Amino acid sequence: MAKKEEAISMVDTFSEFKELKNIDRTTMISVLEESFRNVLAKMFGTDENFDVIVNPDKGDFEIWRNREVVEDGQVSDPNLQISLSEAKKIDNDYEVGEEVTDEVIFEKFGRRAILNLRQTLASKILELQKDAIYNKYKDRIGQIVSAEVYQIWKKEMLLIDDEGNELLLPKTEQIPSDFYRKGETARAVVARVDNKNNNPKIIISRTSEEFLKRLFELEVPEIHDGLITIRKVARIPGERAKIAVESYDDRIDPVGACVGVKGARIHGIVRELRNENIDVINYTANTSLFIQRSLSPAKISSIRLNEEEKKAEVFLKPEEVSLAIGKGGLNIKLACMLTGYTIDVYRDIDETEEEDIYLDEFKDEIDGWVIEALKAIGCATAKSVLAMSREELIEKADLEENTVDEIINILKAEFEEE
User: Fold this and answer.
1) How confident is the model at residue 242 (pLDDT cuts 50, 70, 90)?
2) Are residues 167 and 203 in the same domain?
3) Which of 252, 254, 332, 334 is disulfide-compatible with 245, CB 3.0–4.6 A?
């Protein structure tokens, strides 16, 4: 009964190995042979005099041992030597000094040897699987993957791909409004593959700019075919994004191609990103023009660049300022991210009116942080502040009532003196 169990155990060992994916035949044979040799070396002190022949397709193997024929009574190592009388039992023609090759039945070594083999194999199989997963996903960084949500925790989600590999979607890489149930399919981009202590960990992301790029490649054939190039991307995940595209073919309208007829192409991307608003603009190497486009839908009156410090002062009509800044400051924040410039917006001064004064001139009377708060809402000059109502200044600049009253009095006094 024991021998039968051992034989079944050996067959199981092979069948387990044959089920493995991503492991080629040559590697399979090599690992099986190495595992046998490890066990033989532990049992006999060396495996050099053994020939191991593995046939994983049939699930069988042969082990042959080579020993030197010595005179009876002269055997010092029964693994490397065989007495003449024993050799003649195998074949009567053997002489001293010749080599005897006979088959070794591994199952006869007992349950412990088989268990040792299975443990060795299991360890090597695990290493191979880890290497295969690491190599597979290392080459897929930046590509979109779809996987099934398997487990949801507070700080991350565990997903399983089609081959049973585990993928991690941390909370920090999830769109704030993402909501998944176990068993649902999620799409994300492979962000990175960590391999600490040969333990691969695949991190995927739905918040990266690369995810947005790849979605456009899937939805817009012209991008996939290289007719349109994505030059810049800026995202505030789940809120708003800006993407700058360029076509080298004058016959192709890159913005129109990305949006699609009645927004057909971009709608799918917006849905995938939980209704993230996406602005598609034409890329240009002209920095001034690119900044103007990045602040769309606001229309700019004029712009002043400082290319060394990567700063831009943008002047707009009063009614355009709130458009340039956007709800919660998102529009200007994304424009800064997209262009790489720090952008300050100011209300345009009408030159036909009497002379205005920049707020910086009042630093002796108004605190610097208050001036910066006013600039942040597009008020760079005294008259642009006075043009706003007291309530607007309190709400938009987030200032105390008495502070706003003090500012208004200081600025009014300046013009009254004149």
Assistant:
1) very high
2) yes
3) 254
